[in-house]
Each structure stands twice: as structure tokens, then as C-alpha cells.
Amino acid sequence: MSRFAIRLATICLLTICLAGAWSLLLPTAALAHEVRPAYLELREERPGEYSVLWKVPMQGEMRLGLDPVFSGETRASARVGRAASGAAIEHWTLTAPALRGQTLSIDGLEATMTDALARVEYLDGTSWTQRLTPREPAALIPIADAALDVARVYLKLGVEHILFGIDHLLFVLALLMLTRSVGMLVKTVTAFTVAHSITLALATLGLVHAPQAPVEAVIALSIVFVAAEIVHRDEGRVGVAARAPWIVAFGFGLLHGFGFAGALSEVGLPEGHIPLALFFFNVGVEAGQLVFVAAVILLLAVARRLPVTLPVWAQRVPAYAIGSVAMFWTIQRVAMFSIP
């Protein structure tokens, strides 16, 4: 294994293992920062009358205790609810003579670790999109909304998804360990970006479909494959993944794009701004990925200045650790979708 790979893995592996342990020991905390915020959509059907969609994440059979509250005069019909795709979904009709200028708050949000995405669409074609957080669980509904707000919200969602997506980051780290030069690193990261951008767009727009549970299992298996290729390379059995990691990055990147699309579907895309929201979510994913790669390279540069001597056996630890964690995820995810 190259010094690049050894030092890179030494610095990053402890952080990733700690994050993985945190996600295993505290599943609720880990899931709270997936891209699964609550989603509130109000669409004006007639003047002052809105159809409401309220989607709240569920942990198993438990629904988060969240509820939208308006500061002004409103009247709501009876709610119709159902459970689907790990979320509780409710529909009702809201009558509000003057919704603009009211304050929307999500009751109970301050006691959670999740967020809520709110969107209001008016008959006149204008709209308002806002992200509410535990620190700021309320927001004033302004007179009008700009497309800039949609871009800002979905850009941040994309960044957070990749930075809190430990499996995606572990795959990128394994690819970095497999590369031997800066040129190959650039080509590999670019191939991964292009590939997952393609399937993210196609799946989000409904042009292609893949069942989410098997996709998540194979994403974990892709990490196992790259980790095995690192071991084979170090044993002198250089395969296509070591010779041309960008091919592997592109192939599995298509699969990871379905994973990103599944996360985005949990949030939903605003009608009238679907291309904009999709574009900036993808830009956010790329920005977060570049931040991670840059941080790894920076830490590597710092590590090169440290007088650290690693034993021979330590060269095998990073690849085996990555492969073991990923194999556990694979078995866990297969078990989750195979249980009737």
C-alpha cells in the first residue's frame, strides 16, 4: 500500500469508525440527520383555501410528535392519514383568509434533531419555501417568495446529505485509497460525480426507478468490493479497479445516484421549481463531496510532516476495517428488506 493510502486511512479511519459506532449505538440520533425532514406543503386551490400535505418521519412504528401551527385565523378540515415509505402522511384542507403575514411554527420541533421543510404555493403563481430547524422552529410567511430561497434550501439539504451519509463518504474514501496519483484522483472523483448526477436526475424526475431497499444494500456491497480490491492490489493481484478506479467509480456512482434520489424523495420537490431544486440539491451533494475530499487531502499533507512509523501489519488494517463495516451494513440492509 502506498504511503498516501496508509496515512490517509490512519487519519480518517478512526473518525469514520466512531461515526459508525454512533450510528449503531444511537440509531435515533443517526437517523435524525438523514435527509428525512418533515415536509409541509400548502397549495392554494381557491382564494383563501389550501390543500395541505403533511409528511412526518417515522422511527419504526413511532411518528415524531410534530404539528404545524399558524399564528393567525385558520380553519382546518378533518385529517386523512396513512403510513408510507417510513413516514406518516396526512392530508386536509385549510381555510385562511390571510395566510401571508402569519407566522408558521412547527410544534415540537425544538425537542427533536430533525428539520421541517415548508412550502406554500399561491394561485397567483408565487410561492414561499422555508426550512425550519430546532433552533428556529418558526418563520414569518412573507408577501412573496423568490426562487433564490428554493435554491438556498435545497443546496443546504444536498450538502448535509453527503456529509452525514457515512456510507457514501466511506465509498469515496476507499476510492481515494485506491488511487495512486493526483490525475487519477481527479478522474475518479469526476466519474463518480457524473454518474450519480445522471441517475439522481433520472430517478427524481421519474424516468427510471429502482427499489430503495436493495439499492441501499448494494451501495454497502460496493464499499466491500472496493475494500477487497485494495487488499488484492497490496497482495500483487492488480485488478481493473486498481488500474482504472474511475471505471469502478462511474459504475457504482450510478447506483449511489439512486440512493441520493431516494433521500430526495423523502423531502419532496416543490411544484414549479423542480428543475431548480434538483439542480441545487445536486450542487450541494457535489460541494459536500469536494469538502470531504479537500479535508482528507489537507489532513494527508499535515500527516506527512508527522514522524509516524507504522508497523507492516497496520497496512492491512484500513482496508479490512472498511470492508468489515460495509459488510455489516450489507447484511443488515438485506435482512431489513427480506423480513416479511
UniProtKB/TrEMBL annotation:
Residues 1-32 form the signal peptide. The chain crosses the membrane at residues 161-178, 185-207, 244-264, 276-301, 313-331. The keyword Transmembrane helix applies. Keywords: Membrane, Signal, Transmembrane, Transmembrane helix. This is HupE/UreJ family protein. Pfam families: HupE_UreJ_2. InterPro entries: Put_HupE_UreJ (IPR032809).
